[in-house]
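Researcher: Please predict.
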Amino acid sequence: MKRFLKQPTLYLAMFIISSSAGCTELRNPEARQSQPNATNTEQSSPQVATQPNNLSFVTEVAQKVGPAVVRIDATRTVNVPGASGNPLIDRFFGSELPPQQRVQRGIGSGFIISSDGRILTNAHVVEGADEVTVVLREGRSFAGKVIGADKVTDVAVIDIEANGLPTVEPANSDNIVVGQWAIAIGNPLGLNNTVTQGIVSATGRSGSDIGIQDIRLDFIQTDAAINPGNSGGPLLNAQGQVIGVNTAILGGAQGLGFAIPIETAQRVANQLIETGRVYHPYIGVRLIELTAEIQQQINQSNLGFKVTQDRGVLIVTVAPNSPAARSGLRPGDIITEVNGVQIQNTEQIQDRIEATPAGKTLQLEVNRNGSAQNITIKPEQLPAAAAK
């Protein structure tokens, strides 16, 4: 129902070195503007030259954090269309030839979060991997064991048999502001230990903003150069603290990279380490933020309901046999409050759903045909089919 403009393709930033299939493509809807958090006072512009010999703050960060950034080599077996080696036969009979297996090798990045070998990276870096190898900056390599991977947030944790390793220091994601320094370290295009610098150019980019419909989180946007192979590497502030996990780029555009906020990544990683899985509360509705244009489109359609206001968060569909359906929510309901807090946008609703512990309920107030309705709903674990 929301009209989308044709935009550049989004790529998950993992470098595939043995297959032309390369990266995952997703369509990018028109992005909304993010509002910076004006209350942050921690970040300040460092001096360009802070030490003798013209060493910059970027140099200090690279020297401090670089040893804790790793390269992740992943191999996976993929099926490719059958080929006989004869172009004429392949042209006419290629579809009838049996598929062949090919080993695909990919390079990503990661960073060490505990001195005994725990490493944080992206789920898509290790997805389907038959073998994972972790290479330290100093040159040592280790067999990696994937403790857990969560597709919904694209976070994964790897373990290696090592001790006394250098680690990163996390920042407070809530204190990130637009315009602060951002430094990326990783292995773009297989070029180990590459350092790039830019700024945080936006915060709070939702998955739908940038074309990732199936990842439920808000991203940090940066113009620090991020390329395939940077996936899973750290995005750092001027003090060398990790503010995010580099994840995706927009194909055909410059200065548009995206990172998962570190607090989200830590929360997911802790659950993966403790239980091997992540709890994602789910209620089973599709939401849209109303505008005058969307209101007009709905009222001219045959959806089965009409909308009397042009502001608010509208329930467009309710999944069958979902918590929302069992609680009595209907398409056309406009959510006005969640747990007594007034709602302005879909991100507020999603944040409150995500913050609901397993087994607890939410109290919703909705506007239904002009009258207020109070609904109690108990979220459930996100179904596997919805997480794909």
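Model: The radius of gyration is 23 Å.
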